[in-house]
Amino acid sequence: MSDTKVLVLLGSLRAASINRQLAELAVETAPEGVSLQLFDRLGELPFYNEDIDNDDVAEPVAALRAAAADADAALVITPEYNGSIPGVLKNAIDWLSRPFGDSALKGKPAAVIGGSFGQYGGVWAHDETRKSFGIAGPRIVEDLKLSVPFKSLAGKHPRENADVTENLRDVVGKLAAEVA
């Protein structure tokens, strides 16, 4: 039996971001039989514009859609920017929502997690991302949540926090189990 393929979308472009560290930790600790693929090109996507969404779409968009089509599920890991979803992630969701009604992630399970500086670890952004992504086509697994307040990490890498590591691995395993 082949691995369950999970597409990982990262809402932060910063090389040293804690959310990137969470994404890397998810890849490292994925349960057996689950492979995670981080699509690390969201910053290359042009702003969504229906005028350029055609047969000759930009290469990064085609690559994103191909990665989504190849995946069995999606894991979004995102911070919270100004109480909401980062623009780069919203743009990716807009590209992934097309063609309308038949997106590459249509019906596939998806979960949204991440961390932020606020005391709630980015819950508002995670809720907004679930709403937006759910409209775009994937089947959001509402009970798979992990919001990490950065202060809980005490300046350390997430892998040094046993609870975060265990909860992250649990989310990935349960997301993979949602694949029909």
Automatic annotation (TrEMBL):
<dbReference type="GO" id="GO:0016491">
    <property type="term" value="F:oxidoreductase activity"/>
</dbReference>
<dbReference type="InterPro" id="IPR029039">
    <property type="entry name" value="Flavoprotein-like_sf"/>
</dbReference>
<dbReference type="Pfam" id="PF03358">
    <property type="entry name" value="FMN_red"/>
</dbReference>
<dbReference type="InterPro" id="IPR005025">
    <property type="entry name" value="FMN_Rdtase-like_dom"/>
</dbReference>
<protein>
    <submittedName>
        <fullName>NAD(P)H-dependent FMN reductase</fullName>
    </submittedName>
</protein>
<dbReference type="InterPro" id="IPR050712">
    <property type="entry name" value="NAD(P)H-dep_reductase"/>
</dbReference>
<feature type="domain" description="NADPH-dependent FMN reductase-like">
    <location>
        <begin position="4"/>
        <end position="148"/>
    </location>
</feature>
<dbReference type="GO" id="GO:0005829">
    <property type="term" value="C:cytosol"/>
</dbReference>
<dbReference type="GO" id="GO:0010181">
    <property type="term" value="F:FMN binding"/>
</dbReference>
